Amino acid sequence: MRIATTLFATLALVASTVIAAPENKHGHKNNGPIVINKKVLKTSSVPFIPHTGTALFTNWVGLNVDYKYIQPIFQKVNTTASLGNGTLISRGESHITIITPPEYDTILSKVGMTIHELNALATKNNRLQRAHFDIECLGRVQTVTQPDNVFQQSVQLIVKNYKDIVAYRTDVFKLFVKKGGNPALFAAENFQPHITLGFKNRDLFVEDGIFKGKNACIHKVQLK
Ligand SMILES: *[C@@H]1O[C@H](CO)[C@@H](O)[C@H](O)[C@H]1NC(C)=O
Ligand SMILES: *[C@@H]1O[C@H](CO)[C@@H](O)[C@H](O)[C@H]1NC(C)=O
């Protein structure tokens, strides 16, 4: 009972500190959509990069996205006052996270699934890099993180139409259950694919109480 109350209070705190992205009064809608080279969707021509390690947070599965199409978008966002305003840090690479480090560390690895198995599933016939997807919009999430009480913002491209990616996660789910995993703990469709452009201070995650879905859209994009 006390645990439940504490958990609820924590969730309420997170909820109350999530700040809605403010409407832009200067109307950057008038500046038109952000144009992205449509070749960014052709991820089959860039290599799959395995992310493996021995420490927590070092094992995860990503779909590699060619940074040469993302870097100009980062520059535009970072240099636009109403978007990044020169405050953003970039990782200098781009990807869509498909299996998050916490999913691996706290759920999948617990039944003996290895990162090598997940990578093997991803690379069979170059399946993950060949996955089709599309881009919904430019997204931004902002919140004051706890317990440090620091304002953070993270800007990303929100991904849509990603059935192939869900199919990969469904196979991960099946393997998890086959190995004795509790089906309640992993949902193939419960993730929010996006391509991080940059962030202030640190990136934000679902564990911070934010959601990088259509809800986070702040600007239109156009693929050309
Ligand atoms: C952008 O950054 C400048 C310099 O840090 C600051 O003075 C200004 O208020 C910021 N503008 C917006 C729209 O955040
Ligand atoms: C973002 O813009 C600021 C201000 O122009 C610049 O100092 C900073 O280096 C830029 N960030 C990156 C990663 O290029």
Commentary on this structure:
With 224 residues, the protein is an alpha+beta fold. The chain has one domain (22-223). Helix content is 27%, strand content 22%. The strands form three sheets. It has a four-stranded antiparallel beta sheet, covered by helices on one side. It is globular, with a radius of gyration of 18 Å. The chain starts with a helix and ends with a strand. Bound molecules: 2-acetamido-2-deoxy-beta-D-glucopyranose (NAG) (2 copies). The site of one 2-acetamido-2-deoxy-beta-D-glucopyranose (NAG) has 3 residues, from loops. It holds the Pfam family 2H-SAK. Residues 59-205 form the Swiss Army Knife 2H phosphoesterase domain. This is Swiss Army Knife 2H phosphoesterase domain-containing protein.
Helix content: 25-40%
Task: Provide the spatial order of strands within the biggest beta sheet.
Answer: 6-5-4-7
| Secondary-structure element series | HEEHEHHEEHEEE
**Strand coverage percent:** 15-25%
Mean model confidence by pLDDT: 90
Instruction: Tell me, briefly, the overall form.
Output: globular
Distinct small molecules bound, one entry per kind: 2-acetamido-2-deoxy-beta-D-glucopyranose
Count of beta strands: 8
Please tally the helical runs, counting DSSP H or I stretches of 4 or more residues: 5
